Structure formats: structure tokens, C-alpha cells
What does this fold into?
Amino acid sequence: MSATSARFDVVVAGAGPGGIAAAVVAAEAGKRVCLLDANAAPGGQIWRGLRAETARRYPHGAVFAAWMARLERSGCVVWSGSQVVDLAAPGRLRVESESESRDVEFERLILAAGARERVLPFPGWTLPGVMGAGGAQALVKSGLDPRGKRVVVAGSGPLLLAVAAGLTRAGASVQGIFEQTPLSRLAGLGLRMMLTQPGKLAEGARYRLQTLRTAYHFSSWVKQVEGRGRVERVWITSGGKDRALDCDWLACGFHLVPNLELPRLFGCKIVEGYVAVDALQQSSVPGVACVGELTGIGGLEKALVEGQIAGLSAAGCESMALALALQRRRQQKFALHLDRAFALRAELRGLPMERTIVCRCEDVTHSALSACASWREAKLHTRCGMGACQGRVCGAATEFLYGWKPADSRPPVYPVRVPTLAAETDAAAVARR
Amino acid sequence: MQPEEVSITVNGRPVRVAAGTSIAAALLMAGEPSRFSVTGEARAPLCGMGICMECRVTVNGVPHRRSCLLTCASDMEVVSE
It folds into this structure.
């Protein structure tokens, strides 16, 4: 049994802003390009649910509409609903969609896998109604009606403000924003942004205006969630004092971490949590470039400029790519500042109680994990990280809580159907012959 | 203009949502869990972006579908896992 196969000059994995920019410029330069993404439509998280006709009403909507128009004209082949699950052979990805699994061959590969939220465990965090902050935003963008819902927004990172603004715009009653980082760290960031990134500061101010009736609290975090069968109440700690807030949903995420499964699978060198790349976005693996959040959490502008650099480079237009170096450097500096400003405070390590579940797939508790010395030992003894999410959620949490280093990815990087696995075995057998 | 609606069933119960709504969003609005954990806790969508696997459900008999990545279509049968 063998999977059907297609062949392209450039394959881009991930159709957020970085992937779209990379695919567009490579296709415009005449390359045969395929853009792959697991979601129902291109756009990634920031542009989720936008449609070209109505996009201009939303923040970043005009930018989205312009890139989507270019994508359509570029001749790039777009495969939505397609999850990359493995490197079937050198230069060949295995991709699973709803109906089939197929292989796609490439000369050059650009990984634009984006980031996920870091969610941290505290008592009650597995109750229905607790979502990631970006998670709540993504769900609302995909049709969840927040009208009349009382929502507490908490965690850390610039996303909280955007989430609170989006929820308010969609009709939710946001009960407060609780940011764990102290205001002093943000004030430093604000000053730097004013000097280097006036656009971003204006964007933050616009979000702030939309949520003016919502208080923004610093050095504050969620300690516990209570409720019978769903969220009813959230305990917030602030300046040594605890207080309860009644609510329907808790939107809680602690900044973002890159989706490193594919770069790890390929063997790309990773330094301090991000893929190491050169001035043309090339990773340590020949022919594999990485862009956007994979190389540092910096958001839309960083993804767009890095995507263009990688796409131009894949099309052989190196000098055009290098002309974007200054923009790129500015965005990368911004990403570094964000990581520093939203670094997690040590008190958050004290939130899980003995019986608090840390690994949600296998229901492994904090007390079971506290007895383990490493990620590997935890996997072997408790099944932590062995469930359906393959450690995507608990990996970042256990790295923070216990200082464990994540292991390398193993294929398939997502749970797959049996026929995909059968084709997998088939390809491995061919490779061995 | 009223947005077009689609009808699905969640655990046998009919649910109407606006066209374009993800199954995960429909589950939350219907107040139905996506799955029960290995110790029996009811769980609902967490990450909303295909990462956490908490939202996986059986759709038209196919198990382990990530409901946040799937758009509701007429007469879909969604069952908690």
C-alpha cells in the first residue's frame, strides 16, 4: 500500500502569516509551491475566521485581505485540512487529511508551524469553561457566542489585551485582566516600544481603549478555580491578598511557546527554546527554513518579514531577501524584549496542589510527577506526556514546574489513522531496501 | 441579514448553530463535554487550535476527531468520547 504523491519546488508547512508570506513570494518568483495547513482555511491563529470581504472591520484585516489576494493570484497550491505527520523519506513529507494520507515531495521546505499557548496547572484548571486565552479567542472566532458570558482573562503576555478586546467586541462581559508580570517590567517594554515600534504601541493602546471599562491588574494571577461540573468562580491573588470572582469562563494562558515538533523531527538545531536560523532563515538542516514564532515569539510583523525572507531565498532571490535584514533585526529584538517582559514568576510553580492534574491526557497528578527526576522517568513511570497530545500541553508546564528538558520528537508527530501508519511502515521498508 | 444555520446532533440532542461554526464551539454552546478523562472527569475544549486534543469527539462514527478543526455540517452526528 502506498500513499499518493505530489511534487513541488517549495513546500510550506503552516498557513499563518509567516507561511502565507513565504508561499506567496516564492510562487510569485515562479516556483511551484504547496502551502499545507491543518486548519479548515489559511490564516493561522491571528487571522482565524476572517473572510476577505469583511476582513477590513477587524484589526490586521486589511493586511490579511492583501496577502490573501496575493496568495490567490500567485498560483500557489493550498492544501487546507492537511496535517503533516512525518518525514516519510528525505525530501518527502507524509500528510494526513480527512479522507486520505498522501506524500508531498519538495526541494526546499519552509516550516511555519507557529506557536501554542503555555497553559499552567492550578486547582480546578481541568473544569469545562477553563480555556487558554488565545484558545477562547480562537473559539470565539470559530463561532462560540460569548454574549452575556462573564469572562476572567488571566495569565501573561501581550495576547491578554487583544483577547479581552476581542471578547468585549463580541459581547462578553470581561470581569478583569490579570497579568502575572509586574507593571515595572511592562513600563520598560512600553518605553522601548515607543522608541522602536510606535505601531505596536498604538495597537496596544487601541485594544486598551476598547476594554477601558475592564480593569488591568499587574502582579496578579489565578490561584484556583471552583465550580460543580463547570467554572463558577475564580480565585485571584494580587499583592498577597486573595479574592473570588464569579464568572462563566476563564481565559488563561501564559504567553506562547513555539510548536517545535516538526523542527525537532527534522533535527533542526534549537537554541534556548527556539530554532536557530541564519540571515536567510535557514536552519541547521540544509534545505529546511524556519520562520515566525519558531524562531522567537514576535507576532504578525516578524512572521511576515521572516516568511518573505525564507520564500525569496527558496526562490533564489537572496539579495532581495537580504534587503529585509534591518526590518527582521528590529522584529527579532522586539521578540527578545517580549520574552524578558513576560518571564514567569516563581510563585506560579507553587500553584498545583498534590492532587492537581498536570498531564490532562493521562490524568497524572502533581504529587506523582514531583517524585520523578526527569521527563523520561515521568513518561516511563506515570505516562505523563504519553497521551493524545504527545506532551504538547504538559511539556511546557513540566519544563517550567520541574525544569525538565523536552525529548526529541518521534514520528508520527500527531496521532494518525491506521492506513497512514501502514503507508508509514511501507515507506520505512522501502527506505531500508 | 440572518446568518444561515446548520443542524447537528450532539450526543443525540439536536443543536442549531450559525453556518461556519466549529464543532468545538457548538459543544461549548450546547454545554456538552467533548470527552471524559481516564479518571472520569468531563472535559471541554481548551486550546481551540488543534494542539491539546481535549476537544476530540466521534464525528459520524469516526473517533478522535479534533472538533476545533472541523466545521459543523448539516446532520453531523457528534458524540462525546
